[in-house]
Amino acid sequence: MYRDEHYMRLALDVAKAGIGQTSPNPVVGAVVVNGGAVVGLGAHLKAGELHAEVHAIRMAGEKARGATVYVTLEPCSHYGKTPPCADLLIQAGVRRVVIATTDPNPLVAGKGIDKLRRAGIEVDVGLLKEEADELNRVFFHYIAAKTPFVTLKYACSLDGKIATATGESKWITSEAARQDVHRLRAQHDAILVGVNTVLADNPKLTVRIGEQRKNPLRIILDTNLHTPLDAHVVTDREAETWIITGSGISWEKAEAYERLGVRIIPMPAAHIHVRDVLRLLGEQRITSLFVEGGSRVHDSFLRAGAVNEVVAYIAPKLIGGREAPTPVGGLGFSRLEEAMELDIRQLEMVGPDIKVVAAVKRR
Ligand SMILES: Nc1c(/N=C/[C@H](O)[C@H](O)[C@H](O)COP(=O)(O)O)[nH]c(=O)[nH]c1=O
Ligand SMILES: Nc1c(N[C@@H]2O[C@H](COP(=O)(O)O)[C@@H](O)[C@H]2O)[nH]c(=O)[nH]c1=O
Ligand SMILES: [Zn+2]
Question: If you write DSSP's letter for every residue of 212-269 in order, what string do you get?
């Protein structure tokens, strides 16, 4: 009835149902078409649960025989928590499989396609590849780098201030923008802030919208363990909290936090190096990290080349003040040619505020 692109766009839309739910797995959508009619569709909704193709083929039932299947990621060919999708497609007797992008997971990478072709199924690869890769940028980054995909978030006034010169910051952006931030937090495995933000804002760093979900892990960068013992992130037990410190902290002091259920992780060096933090988080299977400030942490992540995406909420306010802090403090880049280059991916209004989503250009 329609061209291939129409059905692949449908599969990409169906895949989006799993966004923020499938970590450490990718989001995947599948659509089964037979005789010009959509006879089945499915999305992967949670790691360890059924894959998109399984849902779609089950819905199609007997109509899968001789059908064309549109899937946003190469069907898996390994026994993970679920049987291989490639085998299922072969058993179901589909005639053709259209794949948007291959799966970089070494367990799969091309094997699914080979298996399908060896079984005599017509396979086309690459339709809407860009959209499919963008949809799984977090998963693809983590598979390649084994470190979390890092999104840096800040809120500021139109003149780029994150607080007044006297330290006032509640609130710069609207309730709508803050709700949007909570939705973004919910999509991440972990949220990270520096100790100065804990001292200034005493943030909870939890997701407080709609029905309660599992809160992301909270990570505090705190070289000398200055986080107050009565801070929300230490006492509220609403989410797991790790405090990453330098090597020079006292064991007794760390004990006081551990007794409250907070995990203290001293890094090998006196200072905290961002690359070491990311490697450690990657080893702990953290695939996505939401960095919410403050300005010194943002600076250290940017200068370490550790940021993949930036989300900025800009309020229609002017705060001014030479001393008023800005989103990226610290040393910054001294030469314009070193300045971080971005691709603006989204520009929208959230309530009265401007929301900008930008991808960091790979150097
Ligand atoms: N000051 C503003 C923000 N301030 C963000 C702070 O750095 C800190 O993340 C918040 O205080 C988080 O608090 P909690 O986790 O919700 O308890 N963030 C925003 O989006 N808009 C603002 O106006
Ligand atoms: N979610 C998904 C795929 N995910 C692929 O399978 C791996 C997870 O396998 P498992 O542990 O069995 O869930 C994941 O790392 C990725 O390579 N593949 C697909 O054919 N369809 C799906 O819907
Ligand atoms: Zn699969």
Answer: --PPPEEEEE-TT----TTSHHHHS-SS-EEEEE-TT--HHHHHHHHHTTPEEEE-SS
Report ipTM for this prediction.
Answer: 0.89
- The pTM of this model reads 0.93
Classify 349 as helix, strand or coil.
Answer: strand
Task: For residue 319, give the ligand nearest its CA.
Answer: 1
Extract the tokens encoding 349: 């209004």
Confidence band for 102, pLDDT divided at 50, 70 and 90: very high
Residue with tokens 């407080």: 208
Out of 195, 292, 355, mutate this one to test ligand 1's pocket (max ligand atoms within 8 Å of CB): namely: 292
The question of whether 53 is a catalytic residue gets the answer yes
Tell me, using a 6 A CB cutoff, whether residue 201 lines ligand 1: yes
Nearest Cα residue to atom 19 of ligand 1: 155
Confidence tier at 108 by pLDDT (50, 70, 90): confident
Q: Which two tokens stand for residue 255?
A: 């004990």
On the question of a cis peptide bond just before residue 294, with omega within 30 degrees of 0, the verdict is yes
Cβ of 76 below 6 Å from ligand 2: yes
Could you read off the pLDDT of 51-82 as tens digits, one per residue?
999 999 999 999 999 999 999 999 999 887 77
Residue 274 pLDDT level (bands cut at 50, 70, 90): very high
Q: Considering only CA atoms, which residue is closest to atom 15 of ligand 2?
A: 25
Mean pLDDT of the chain: 95
Nearest protein Cα to ligand 2, atom 23: 51
Spatial distance between the Cα atoms of 309 and 151, rounded to a whole number of angstroms: 5
Q: How far apart are CA 123 and CA 97, in angstroms?
A: 5
